[in-house]
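Give me the fold.
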Amino acid sequence: METHPTMLSHGELPYPRGTLVEDTQHGRTGELVGVIEERVKKDNRLISRTAFLRPEGGGTEWDVPLQHIRPVGNP
């Protein structure tokens, strides 16, 4: 498998910063802090989007693939 150099950058937030979201992968809730995107340098092709969350009221942040978060209270 051929690999290409990649770059990381801040991505667009799907909800406002601080929104309480559910991490469906880990079964936790937290506040949305930011999104990091990984892209191929050569053609800017998106490889992944990762959300960074922190517990309500503060604490240690964790990351989860963006597709595994949703606002609390939404089905």
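The radius of gyration is 14 Å.
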